[in-house]
Amino acid sequence: MVLYRVLSSSPNKPANALQSTLLNMQETIREPMVQDPTQFDVLVMPNLYGDILSDLCAGLIGGLGVTPSGNIGANGVAIFESVHGTAPDIAGKDLANPTALLLSAVMMLRHMGLHGHAKKIESACFDTIRDRKVLTKDLGGNSKCSEFTEAICQRMKDMD
Amino acid sequence: MCFSTLLWGEGYDTTLFATIWTKPVLLNIKLTLVLLLSSVHLQQQGENIPPPAKYGGRHTVTLIPGDGIGPELLNHVREVFRFTCVPVDFEMVNVNSALETDDDMNNAITAIRRNGVALKGNIETKHTLPASVKSRNNVLRTSLDLYANVMHCQSLPGVQTRHKNIDIMIIRENTEGEYSSLEHESVSGVVESLKIITRNNSIRIADYAFKLARERGRRRVTAVHKANIMKLGDGLFLQCCREVASGYPDITLDSMIVDNTTMQLVSKPQQFDVMVMPNLYGNVVSNVCAGLVGGPGLVPGANYGRDYAVFETATRNTGKSIAEKNIANPTAMLLASCLMLDHLNLNDYASLIRNAVLTTMNETRLHTADLGGQGTTSEVVQSVMRVIQSKGQFTAEL
Question: In CATH, what class is B162-292?
Answer without folding.
Answer: alpha beta
